[in-house]
Design goal:
Strand content: 15-25%
Helix content: 40-55%
Order of helices and strands: HHEHEHEHEHEEEEEHEEHEEHHEH
CATH superfamily of the largest domain: Type I PLP-dependent aspartate aminotransferase-like (Major domain)
Bound molecules: pyridoxal-5'-phosphate
CATH topology of the largest domain: Aspartate Aminotransferase, domain 2
Length: 375
């Protein structure tokens, strides 16, 4: 059994994927081939944004977003305490400080009340300058943008949507990657839209940001081309082969995979109701279900389930065992006004189960039975 069955997906899309890869091999345009431009066009259309700029991975996409936001020495960047380190990592790299905020008790995404509390605490302290907010659509579940956007506007902060886990999801009729001044995503193979290696993208509606992004991705190139370097940038691009793989996968995601993800999540929700805390997706939101995470009543119960699943050979993961503030790299960062009650509780009790659009009901029942047996 696979945690995310990429082999089943490949079997379903093999003809298109193989033909697309062959086309790239025949053309030998391994960098910057026409498939990259076509993918950027289709991605922008899919999420309803003016610009999409692909890059080497989701971590680079975030680093580029931080650079565009102008994050530097003495700045505070507000991030949820429960995320993957890529969301927060560039702050320290650029001499800024990540100020962690708690997650909500139900959606596990950035808590707007905690965000505002932390912004005010930073302002009151006076050492750091509030600069940007990274709103992470964690596990595929969109953030509460109706609450977060006005807070960013009120304090003049750049909003970055980290949609690495939520490509395909939506919030009140708008697709994930459509929020914030800049949105980023990842095409890591296990993501809802994954390639066969590393890949990522930046989205924006702003022409100036898009130009800046294209420049940063190619060593800070200027109007005169790649040897006209006008700023410090990076070498971050999506290979043509990865674009060729992503084109049929994007179509499949829109045609049926997102629907299938809802079906799989629905079956889990039904089975675990009353036994575990099942994921909450707010009215008007559609999760991309990057992960299906349940909360056990306590850590001991969670660990008992993990041990039983291991015995049965059923893959499972803990996303994430440690909130950001408790990671060794961030242990000395100031907590300001937050004690991270929800993030601590979530990390202590969470468990993620196999989740992908090719998970058949019979195989899923084996997982469900094993989880319930463990109780
Ligand atoms: C929330 C989040 N942001 C960013 C990233 C970084 O993406 P990548 O692995 O493509 O660098 C990930 C990857 O796991 C992620 O989960």
């Amino acid at each position: 059994m696979q945690f995310i069955d990429l082999k089943a997906q490949y079997r379903a899309l093999k003809t298109e994927i193989n033909a697309n890869i062959q086309q790239v091999l025949d053309s030998a345009q391994f960098i910057g081939g026409p498939q990259v431009k076509e993918l950027e066009k289709q991605l922008a259309e899919f999420v309803g944004r003016k610009h999409c700029i692909t890059c080497a991975n989701g971590t680079d996409a975030l680093q580029i977003a931080y650079m565009i936001a102008g994050v530097g020495e003495g700045d505070a960047v507000f991030c949820p305490d429960m995320t993957f380190i890529s969301s927060t990592e560039p702050a320290k790299m650029f001499g800024a400080t990540s100020v962690f905020c708690d997650i909500t008790r139900d959606t596990y995404t950035l808590c707007p009340e905690s965000l505002e509390k932390q912004i005010q605490a930073v302002l009151a302290d006076g050492t750091l300058k509030p600069k940007a907010v990274v709103a992470v659509d964690i596990l595929g579940n969109p953030c509460d943008f109706d609450a977060i956007v006005p807070i960013c506007e009120k304090y003049g902060l750049t909003l970055i949507e980290d949609a690495a886990q939520s490509f395909g999801g939506s919030y009140k009729g708008r697709k994930c990657c459509a929020f914030g001044d800049i949105a980023t995503t990842s095409f890591f193979p296990a993501k809802p839209l994954g390639c066969y290696g590393d890949g990522g993208a930046v989205f924006t509606d702003d022409d100036t940001i898009a130009d800046l992004c294209r420049s940063i991705c190619v060593h800070g190139k200027g109007p005169g081309g790649k040897y006209d370097n006008i700023r410090v940038g990076m070498n971050s691009r999506l290979d043509t082969i990865q674009a060729a793989v992503l084109l049929p996968k994007l179509k499949a995601l829109g045609d049926y995979e997102m629907d299938e993800r809802q079906v799989v999540a629905g079956r889990y929700n039904e089975a675990f109701k009353g036994h575990f805390v099942t994921p909450f997706v707010a009215e008007g939101s559609v999760s991309a279900w990057a992960q299906y995470a349940i909360l056990a009543k306590d850590t001991a119960t969670r660990d008992k389930v993990i041990a039983h699943l291991k015995e049965k050979g059923i893959p499972n993961m803990v996303y994430y065992p440690t909130p950001q503030h408790a990671l060794p790299v961030f242990r000395c960062e100031p907590h300001f006004a937050e004690s991270f009650e929800n993030a601590n509780d979530y990390c202590a009790r969470t468990l993620s189960l196999p989740m992908h659009p090719y998970l058949e009901a019979e195989e899923q029942q084996i997982i469900i039975d094993a989880v319930l047996e463990a109780l």
